[in-house]
Design brief:
Layout (H helix, E strand, L loop, with lengths): L2 H34 L2 H22 L2 H8 L3 H28 L1 H7 L6 H26 L3 H31 L3 H6 L5 H25 L7 H26 L1 H8 L4 H15 L3 H20 L6 H25 L1 H4 L14 H17 L1 H5 L3 H26 L2 H25 L6 H22 L6 H23 L3 H5 L5
Helix pairs in contact: 1-7, 1-13, 2-6, 2-10, 2-12, 3-4, 3-6, 3-10, 4-6, 5-6, 6-9, 7-9, 10-18, 11-12, 11-18, 13-14, 13-16, 14-16, 14-20, 14-21, 16-19, 18-19, 20-21
């Protein structure tokens, strides 16, 4: 089996866990939340999850990537895992204590002064997710994607079960006279139960991973920890910048969209719901990153490593372009997964989908500074992307509303990819097939343009539109096949490209 096939297999398994879990979230919870919550309420949920994503970077301080770097040798695995886990455990205890202590002023700063419980619950969620991060990283490094998949999927299933327990079963039980259900559930504060359900899911996931902690030999290496922190801290900057790039548009919409706070919350909700369409491609990007990072480190010493990296980037661009066009051609069906009140924002979907392709390519191209221990470069690039993101949002949110964060994401990831490639070619040159990669993306965009033009002439008959778009997708796939049947596709069969 070729290495490319091996990576594809691992990506598929990680994809099942990542895609299945988040697809369950997307198929079940996104339609549900966008129907039971008003635009503004859903905006509040989305904003708080943006802060959770940022806090998780701070709680883990990118030690999972440092764990890949310093624990890849079998003789170093136990010592590195023990040192990293103890560090995360101690820091999480301190950070969580601070959040709980200052929950009220933090809630007031977020403009939710009557709800300090929001801060309490998301502090506990972040703490448990941080404690699960290194055991999950160990599963990835040890090439155990099936166990990774099972634990991830069980976590999201538990989350879904508790969501429906709180929002459907508890109100039904209250109607039937079960007074204890009224003690558990308060319908006047629905938002908090989203976080309670998540907390319970995070707790269950951590309990499943506890055996990994019980195996720790309490081996703590200060010298190793210092090396790991030096390696990881630039990645923390990169991670913070990445969260800023991905989520800063949501709180900025609340601040800048207008002078009406309720209108701005609605803008957050519309943007967040519509951006969930891009999750379909982001799932693949996430699965690819889960598999690729440890895969790249495990095979870094191979003589053909650079050729492999180039093939991986090309493969991602090929699959990502197909995913982009498929999603956009079937938008007539996909749109029904979000509530009617939120569909006005679907115009941002193609922008965010292309942005996610560029982000996935950045993950692939960025391997050079991780392998060569120049992670500070990644921090600088991500900070530059964050500055660009913030500037575009500040300038254009008052003008074009929730379209501004979408265009900012596209500009940011394009900038990061270009800078990473340019610097990489000077420090760790890899012969990426740039022409082919651009060709896949531009061809997909071109077929999407044909779809937009022909849509003006097709009648508003769903089955006819789906049939025509299926034909269009078939022509696109056949074109790709003709382009690559004697080239790149041979590499997928285990031959040299």
């Amino acid at each position: 089996m070729s290495l490319l096939k091996k990576l594809a297999g691992e990506t598929a398994i990680y994809g099942i866990s990542s895609i299945l879990s988040r697809l369950l979230n997307w198929v079940v919870l996104t339609p549900y939340f966008t129907r039971i919550f008003a635009q503004g309420e859903y905006g509040v949920v989305s904003e708080l999850y943006a802060w959770i994503a940022l806090l998780l970077i701070l709680f883990t301080y990118r030690m999972e990537t440092a764990f890949f770097r310093f624990g890849r040798a079998p003789e170093d695995l136990q010592r590195t895992f023990s040192t990293t886990s103890i560090s995360i455990l101690l820091s999480s205890f301190v950070f969580t204590g601070l959040l709980l202590l200052f929950a009220a002023p933090i809630a007031a700063w977020l403009e939710y002064p009557d709800h300090p419980e929001y801060v309490t619950w998301f502090a506990l969620i972040v703490a448990f997710d941080a404690l699960a991060a290194i055991p999950f990283a160990r599963l990835r490094l040890q090439n155990r994607p099936m166990q990774f998949m099972i634990f991830k999927t069980l976590g999201i299933i538990v989350n879904i079960i508790f969501v429906f327990f709180f929002f459907e079963i508890c109100p039904w039980l209250m109607e039937k006279g079960w007074t204890w259900a009224g003690i558990i559930y308060n319908g006047d504060n629905k938002i908090v139960y989203v976080f309670i359900a998540n907390f319970l899911a995070s707790l269950v996931t951590l309990l499943l991973l506890l055996p990994a902690y019980f195996k720790i030999k309490l081996e703590f290496d200060f010298i190793l920890l210092r090396k790991m922190l030096v390696y990881a801290l630039p990645l923390v900057l990169s991670g913070i910048a990445g969260i800023v790039n991905q989520f800063i548009g949501i709180p900025l919409l609340k601040m800048l969209a207008s002078n009406d706070l309720e209108h701005n919350k609605a803008q957050m909700g519309i943007f967040s719901a519509a951006s969930k369409i891009a999750v379909l491609l982001n799932l693949f990007t996430q699965a690819f990153n889960y598999a690729a990072e440890p895969f790249f480190f495990r095979n870094a010493d191979r003589a053909d490593a650079k050729m492999m990296y180039a093939q991986v980037a090309q493969a991602f661009a090929l699959v990502g372009s197909i995913a982009f066009l498929t999603i956009m051609l079937y938008m007539d069906l996909i749109q029904y997964f979000i509530g009617r009140d939120f569909r006005e924002g679907l115009g941002i979907a193609p922008i965010l989908l292309i942005a996610n392709i560029l982000l996935g390519l950045y993950y692939s191209v960025s391997i050079w500074f991780k392998i060569s221990d120049k992670t500070n470069v990644g921090g600088y690039i991500a900070i530059g992307g964050s500055i660009l993101t913030i500037l575009i949002n500040l300038i254009f949110i008052p003008v074009i509303g929730y379209y501004a964060p979408a265009w900012a994401a596209l500009a940011c990831y394009g900038f990061m990819l270009a800078m990473c490639y340019w610097l990489g070619q000077r420090n760790y040159p890899i012969d990426y097939p740039v022409g082919r990669i651009l060709g896949y993306i531009l061809l997909a965009v071109g077929f999407y343009g044909i779809h937009l033009i022909t849509n003006h002439f097709l009648p508003e008959i769903l089955w006819l539109r789906v049939l025509f778009n299926t034909l269009l997708l078939g022509i696109y796939l056949f074109t790709l096949y003709r382009m690559e049947k004697n080239g790149f596709l041979r590499g997928l069969r285990g031959k040299t490209v």
